[in-house]
Amino acid sequence: xxxxxxxxxxxxxxxxxxxxxxxxxxxxxxxxxxxxxxxxxxxxxxxxxxxxxxxxxxxxxxxxxxxxxxxxxxxxxxxxxxxxxxxxxxxxxxxxxxxxxxxxxxxxxxxxxxxxxxxxxxxxxxxxxxxxxxxxxxxxxxxxxxxxxxxxxxxxxxxxxxxxxxxxxxxxxxxxxxxxxxxxxxxxxxxxxxxxxxxxxxxxxxxxxxxxxxxxxxxxxxxxxxxxxxxxxxxxxxxxxxxxxxxxxxxxxxxxxxxxxxxxxxxxxxxxxxxxxxxxxxxxxxxxxxxxxxxxxxxxxxxxxxxxxxxxxxxxxxxxxxxxxxxxxxxxxxxxxxxxxxxxxxxxxxxxxxxxxxxxxxxxxxxxxxxxxxxxxxxxxxxxxxxxxxxxxxxxxxxxxxxxxxxxxxxxxxxxxxxxxxxxxxxxxxxxxxxxxxxxxxxxxxxxxxxxxxxxxxxxxxxxxxxxxxxxxxxxxxxxxxxxxxxxxxxxxxxxxxxxxxxxxxxxxxxxxxxxxxxxxxxxxxxxxxxxxxxxxxxxxxxxxxxxxxxxxxxxxxxxxxxxxxxxxxxxxxxxxxxxxxxxxxxxxxxxxxxxxxxxxxxxxxxxxxxxxxxxxxxxxxxxxxxxxxxxxxxxxxxxxxxxxxxxxxxxxxxxxxxxxxxxxxxxxxxxxxxxxxxxxxxxxxxxxxxxxxxxxxxxxxxxxxxxxxxxxxxxxxxxxxxxxxxxxxxxxxxxxxxxxxxxxxxxxxxxxxxxxxxxxxxxxxxxxxxxxxxxxxxxxxxxxxxxxxxxxxxxxxxxxxxxxxxxxxxxxxxxxxxxxxxxxxxxxxxxxxxxxxxxxxxxxxxxxxxxxxxxxxxxxxxxxxxxxxxxxxxxxxxxxxxxxxxxxxxxxxxxxxxxxxxxxxxxxxxxxxxxxxxxxxxx
Length: 924
Description:
With 924 residues, the chain is α+β, with helices and mostly antiparallel strands. The protein contains 25 helices and 38 strands. It starts with 5 loop residues before the first strand and ends with a helix.
């Protein structure tokens, strides 16, 4: 190699660039790259480029028109991501240097790393050769070895094709399906797009499926029986069970805990009485036997990102997004963890010495883990075959501590996540925990009672987690000499307990992440299932973003610690299955695409063939979305019951609600038509078919669970029918809690009305979505006063005699009533549920008290009071959150007071803000 020539090395992250420079040696850092006589090393920060939006390809796509679909670019073009143009230009300037003879791709060893490099290579526009490093281990020895054995970049062209096809197929499906579905489903009353995507829509389908299962559940009462027994040395309890019960094979193992029929449940009073009678007859001849087995609990695996997110959600209640942000800070800012966006739970085989060095660091400093680290170093690393495996290391290896210590004290999420990773890392190399599992069966006549106890005998790896290590069993032995012998016992009592079945629990983020990771289990096709077995849908780096995106699109909401599909989300999944383009909501789509991409990587499928298949698939989606008729997609569904309004028609399901089949399609009612409809959402709850069928047949049903918009307040309500409003809340006896004729009416006392308004009775109408009040307003109409005799009449008009009076007084302002106005306030305003008391205060006093929990469009909290304007609308008067919380704002530093010396300017700005807020709020 010519001494003047060098290679430009491009890594995916700055930290990797630093590791390469350190391992190779002889580098000097020059701004945003490292330089040596042989190499320049620079870096990306993930993807620096992205595909152009449709409107950037052609201005006509700015208007979302069905006739312009599908959008099938002849060439996919890229643009710099926001904020990355400077970084790209710096890399390009290095690439153009005359001494740079070629590129070395040192991005992550995988499909996405290949795409990141090739995007940058194309942007640089240099036809120079490429070499490829395939770095799975980051030890200095491995890095030097890879540089000596780098392969020609052309050997990875198939991988590059697969990477481009993955990105472009996602663009095709997302852009076209989102536009087509949005144009068909969006109405004037709905905001935002109906977003559809290859990964987000199947994820939504998982949440929607569980939500519907939860909503359709009806509690079924059952009994359980607890027996109390005694021996010469101790008392114990046992739960009755049916030893002949067979669990259903048709129920998924994950859902068995919610299945109603279980071996310890009794569903009839007759069966309960039979068991109690048998117990009474034979209670004097009770016997018991037991088995005691030793059970080993193997040490846990290291964390990949998904497993870390699941653990943080389960133990700490943290969302996947919060966990990722904390792990990223620990990696980038604090340098305490290895790269977190990994899907591997294994370490490279040459990392044994690195692990030992990390453990030595932790054993040298007194902490709660010092003792455990010393034990590992003394006995040697255990479980190595389950941890070190090159074949199971993907783009990155497992998340482990770097061995560095915090330069500053960690707190909050960072401390919690670091603690989780550190504990898991140490525990992984420790002995198994040993448990003593005891199962005791007590027989009374034909009835059997089971007692199960599990005691920790040897803590092993659980020592790190600080669990109790009781040596004595909580359940003493039945027979010291012969533990497995049948022993007579004394029956003390039998206690029946009444319970009711519970619905399948809504998905937590931990459970959802697990389903996304292991979704291949539900796939019938063996080839597709095998593909999904390793990867699932999404990647560890994107799953948190997918969940947050579903929430932002209002398809999903957080419900305490769980995730709940909204009515919008359920409708989308339902309509996709009916058009039908339900492929978009199935994990098989990802499996099929991944299957073809893997064939492409092996040279068994051409890029052009794959993309033509994606064009055809996208065209089919658009055609079905464009051509379906709403009435047709529900035509095969049976009626839910007779119409309670016209008493002639039948109620059928539609997209927005359940309506009478005698309803017309025009806005104006014609003779013989019926307007009856039950909307598919009420107080944040999706109204499914089962509820409608019940209420149409039984008239009073429930109670059912409802909630406020934030999911923080839950309550139960009975439902009954209203000929106008569909279904309404009622008491258990059917007494309506809402007006059955269209509105709830609240009378306001006229003497309390503000002076701005005319004295007249005030009525507040409470609708499904808003509070309304009609009133008259005093409007003062001033006339120009003429105070002197010299006042001249207007040109062309003669002065009347009555006007010729030099002592004329100014004319009084006339007051006349304006046409009645209607004040309207949404029941959900800026993310906050407005109560009737809020609105009554607003009408009676002219404003609400300051309210702290409004949210802006960006999700930021703000405090404000609502003030009633003379035109009946309202405006926000913003309030300092400190003042609202009772904090003393006068103690602010003097510097803060001097920041604005132009008081007039401050006042003008404030008034502008108020005016703007008033305009925005009145148009809500």
